[in-house]
Amino acid sequence: MKWITKYAPICLCLLFSTVSVTTHAQSDKFQTNSGEVTIIPINHATLALKWGQEVIYFDPSGDHQLFKEVPKPTMILITDIHGDHLNLSTLDRIGAKDIQLVAPPAVADKIPRSYSKVRVLPNGQSVELGGVKIEAMPMYNLPESKDSRHPKGRGNGYVLTIAGKRLYISGDTADIPEMRALEDIDVAFVCMNLPYTMDVASAASAVLDFAPAIVYPYHFRGQNGLSDVGQFKETVTTGNKSIEVRLREWYP
Fold it and tell me: Is the pTM of the predicted complex or chain greater than 0.90?
């Protein structure tokens, strides 16, 4: 009965509903003790969160038209150096030069000095900005190797705490021990595309370990087309019916 004790408060205060915030993706809202948060899926690894006056973008990339109906960001978090995460062209087109950026050192090194607000946040460090606590955690491939596409320490996954709710954004990672050890995650965004991150079975296994209340599969288009997010949902919900898997349109 452990999951009942753990998730009963979430069931009372995480009330989701589908809203029309963008023309290309479904968006959700959930309640906190300090107002509602809107989750806006945008494209592949790109999403936004809106809470009060704060609008947080994650890894904005792709055509700037994708953002035309999304509120302008007050903060941008970037996970890694690859173009689907750090895209200077997209950053320029959405007017990010005067917006607060948060990034690991390897990303910060590639951002031009014309960007005036870059907060460097290595793995294991945290910062509070705009009332949001941001924790940088590892994201990396397994097995670890020198020629890994995502070596440990280069990129960041993020855990955000917003009015007591904890959200996890995986970035490009395998089913690493640090992910499996997460606790009390209300909403998780978990990648799955080989050979860059992990397969469906590994992603589902990790999610069953850290048991978020809500999980969104994202970043799931790889070399062989779309990953089977339907199979991911079936595996997770069969293993733990208290975890809600939400499928959204990440590839408009």
Answer: no
d(CA 97, CA 83): 18
To the nearest 10 degrees (0 to 180), the angle between helices 200-210 and 229-239 is 30
CB atoms closer than 10 angstroms to residue 230? 13
Question: What's 48's DSSP letter?
Answer: E
Stretches in the chain below the pLDDT threshold 50: 1-25
What's the confidence (pLDDT) of residue 6?
Answer: 41
Alpha helices in the chain (DSSP H): 2-13, 88-93, 105-108, 177-180, 200-210, 229-239
Res 10: pLDDT:
36
Determine how many CB atoms are found less than 10 A away from the CB of residue 145: 9
d(Cα 58, Cα 53) in Å, to the nearest integer? 17
pLDDT at 27: 87
Strands annotated E in 59-199 = 75-77, 100-103, 118-120, 126-129, 132-139, 155-162, 165-169, 187-191
